[in-house]
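Hello forum,

I keep getting stuck at the same step: I have a sequence, I want structure tokens, and every attempt I make locally crashes halfway through. Rather than fight my setup again tonight, could one of you with a working pipeline run this one for me? It's a single chain of 304 residues.
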Amino acid sequence: MADDLLSDPCCAFHRNLEISSRYAWMYQLQPACFKWAAMAAIASHHIRLALFPLRLDADRTGYVDIPHSLVRPKLLLTQDVNTIRATNNAIFNDLFWVHLAYVSADDGIERLRALLQAERRYAAVLAGFEAIDQGRRVLADEMASAAARQTADDLIWEGNIELLEHEQRALVQPSFDRLSCASAWLVAIGSATSFEVRGVRQEIADFTSFYLYSLTRGIPHALRARTWPRITRFDDRWRWLVTSVVPRFRRFDADTRLVNASLRHILDEARDFASSPCVLPRSPADGPRRTAQPRPWHRPRPKG
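Reply #2:
Ran it on my machine without issues. Output:
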């Protein structure tokens, strides 16, 4: 079912847009619970910028030939760009379907227990959803006190942070271990988050970057470790995520207007691009070129 929510096949840029929009859609189904999905939507939306070098091998139809890109000179870092692209796809393949299984059942946590208990690599994911589900049940209780609701909200965030840690440890870290030194520096420099907010004052309030954090709040740890912080090192990156990125996003998420505007921007962009689908390469068995068909939820905006 999760695979059917993406056009198959399609170029790298349409796939990124579709993944970002599916996360945004998932968050909107249960905004009180699916915090990881909103963060993933914004992160995936930022990744589209890192894919730009692949456009150098787009033909006149707009289709990007990734195999051809990978044989370009190493100066363009296309191998690393492709690693980032593949990692974004892998995160979707690993975690989106779990959200879909949970939300599409009357008792989602029981469905996840049946699906995931035998899978050791999903232990942290199941634990995260156990916490999310426990918090959700309290929030659904109209008789719950304000204190109980606050505790439930904290529990939901703890569960989503467990999903984030699984993503970073199991999926992102192996890819970062393969990045070249040049790309690692570029990733670090570009690792800034503003949550796509419109308005300079709000962007400044929500802005965070890995090196800005490392050279301020992260200095005591760097001095103790006697090593320069690196975003490709899990411990350094995780410290930044849990002490800077997540708290800022939590404040951002508390403003329904802001988070909805950001995710609506992602959904609108995916819909607009789907009105001009990428052109697929021709294979001898296929005959003439085909175009990827827009999904029903990606209809172009009406004119006028």
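Confidence is low (pLDDT under 50) at residues 279-304. If your local run keeps crashing, start a new thread with the error log.
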